[in-house]
């Protein structure tokens, strides 16, 4: 079978990495690149840098990757759907829920694979975490806590920290918990003088009773990418920046020190840091997209899931604006 002919719209900070990975992915050929801003990172190589999505479609595509700023996602995705091109759109799916729904419906109606680029689902630590949770290693899940902190990235200009970063945590928490969000309460801050928020704290509850908490900001002088899942048998801690996963088991040795036993709900048990195969998440994401197009697997993040995540994201922003919790 011939390789998929793939087009890439946008070769900025994320698009340049997609260009490399698409070229390296078996079964995919990067045949067209489009970016009205040019190719500042020099990734086009022997390909002409086309002016827009329509010129890219004219090259004859089987699939496309959309890595332009969020405000342009709907226009580009709808054009690709109309042209019959399977498409992955970088997160979030669109600038708002209504736009996202139009995109998702267009791909469903056309019978095309529509995916959203939530690359954290392809992180080796989170893949292993989810597998172990599904295998019952933690028993009943009680709480999911995420921290996503770092300095401000100059590449971001059209959205705040909620739609750019917190959207990752909303998606991965629902994916790990196997449930949708039921209620959220959030607070935001604007400390860097920009139009959009640069800090957010979110607390909430899933439909299955799992508690969630997200701490996200662009104002930390260090990079922190941590996901903690606590259950009845212990806790799993993922450092997604390094792809590391550690299991903290509840202790099984009786505590004879009465004051400690009365104070603690559980005792500290064995700690295991797992040795994982650490494949590049972006490569796994492109392989999932390819295999969905070929009908082999459905491990990609669907556009319907992308819309649900955007619904939670907008509920977070509404809660922060109104100072009240929001039910979904």
Shape: globular
Q: Order of strands across the biggest sheet?
A: 14-13-12-11-7-10-9-8-15
Main structural class? alpha/beta
* Biggest sheet statistics: 9 strands, mixed
Give the helix tally.
9
Query: Residue-averaged pLDDT, rounded?
Result: 94
List the secondary-structure elements in sequence, H or E: EHEEHEHEHEHEHEEEEEEHEHHE
Q: Care to count the β-strands?
A: 15
Identify the CATH homologous superfamily of the largest domain: Dihydrodipicolinate Reductase, domain 2
- What's the domain count? 2
Domain Gfo/Idh/MocA-like oxidoreductase N-terminal: 4-118
GO molecular function, one term: nucleotide binding
Protein name: Dehydrogenase
Domain GFO/IDH/MocA-like oxidoreductase: 127-236
How would you sum up this structure, described in words?
This protein is α/β, with parallel strands linked by helices and about 325 residues long. The protein folds into two domains: about 5-120 and about 285-300, Rossmann fold (3-Layer(aba) Sandwich); about 120-275 and about 310-325, Dihydrodipicolinate Reductase, domain 2 (2-Layer Sandwich). About 30% of the residues lie in helices and about 30% in strands. The protein has helices at about 15-25, 55, 75-80, 95-110, 125-135, 160-175, 260-265, 280-295, 305-320, and strands at about 5-10, 30-35, 50, 65, 85-90, 115, 140-150, 180-190, 200-205, 210-215, 220-230, 235-240, 245-250, 270-275, 325. It is globular and about 70 Å long. The model has no long low-confidence stretch (mean pLDDT about 95). This is Dehydrogenase.
């Amino acid at each position: 079978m011939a390789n998929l002919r793939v087009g890439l719209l946008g070769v900025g900070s994320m698009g340049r990495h997609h260009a490399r990975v698409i070229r390296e992915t078996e079964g995919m050929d990067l045949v067209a690149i489009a970016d009205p801003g040019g190719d500042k990172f020099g990734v086009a190589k022997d390909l002409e840098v086309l002016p827009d999505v329509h010129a890219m479609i004219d090259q004859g595509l089987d699939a496309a990757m959309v890595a332009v700023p969020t405000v342009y996602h709907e226009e580009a995705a709808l054009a690709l759907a109309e042209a019959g091109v399977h498409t992955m759109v970088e997160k979030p799916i669109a600038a708002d829920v209504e736009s996202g729904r139009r995109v998702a419906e267009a791909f469903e109606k056309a019978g095309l694979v529509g995916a959203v680029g939530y690359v954290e689902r392809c992180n080796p630590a989170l893949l292993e975490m989810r597998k172990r949770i599904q295998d019952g290693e933690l028993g009943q899940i009680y709480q999911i806590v995420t921290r996503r902190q770092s300095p401000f990235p100059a590449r971001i200009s059209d959205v705040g920290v909620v739609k750019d970063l917190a959207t990752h945590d909303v998606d991965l928490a629902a994916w790990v918990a196997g449930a949708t969000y039921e209620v959220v309460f959030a607070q935001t801050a604007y400390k860097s003088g920009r139009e959009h928020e640069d800090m957010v704290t979110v607390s909430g509850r899933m439909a299955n009773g799992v508690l969630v908490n997200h701490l996200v900001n662009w104002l930390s002088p260090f990079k922190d990418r941590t996901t903690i899942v606590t259950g009845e048998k212990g806790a799993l801690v993922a450092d997604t920046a390094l792809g590391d996963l550690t299991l903290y088991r509840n202790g099984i040795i009786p505590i004879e020190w009465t004051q400690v036993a009365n104070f603690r709900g559980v005792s500290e048990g064995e700690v295991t840091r797992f040795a994982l195969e650490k494949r590049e998440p972006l490569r796994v994401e492109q392989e999932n997209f390819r295999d969905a197009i070929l009908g082999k697997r459905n491990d990609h993040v669907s556009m319907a899931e992308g819309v649900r995540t955007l619904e939670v994201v907008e509920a977070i922003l509404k809660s922060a604006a109104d100072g009240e919790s929001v039910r979904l």
